[in-house]
């Protein structure tokens, strides 16, 4: 936020929830589901960060 890489109107704890939530869902809440797909964590991070960029 301080360096302008992500929007400054966001709550850091909420951003953390956005990043961790999908992985927890797949590993803790749905332990009977298949293993995490390779690259899932990177996909989640890339998707979330794309939405956090400052609006121009």
**Mean of residue pLDDT values:** 82
SSE string: HH
Number of strands: 0
State which percent range the strand residues make up.
under 5%
The gross shape turns out to be: elongated
The value of Rg in angstroms is 13 Å
Question: Which secondary structure elements does this structure contain, and how are they paired or packed?
Answer:
Layout: H1 12-29, H2 40-52
Descriptive overview:
Helix content is 55%, strand content 0%. With 56 residues, the chain is mainly alpha-helical. The longest helix is centred in the middle third of the chain and has 18 residues, at 12-29. The mean pLDDT is 82.
Quick overview of this protein structure:
This protein has helices at 12-29, 40-52. With 56 residues, it is an all-alpha fold.
Question: What descriptive keywords fit this protein?
Answer:
mainly alpha; 0% strand; 56 residues
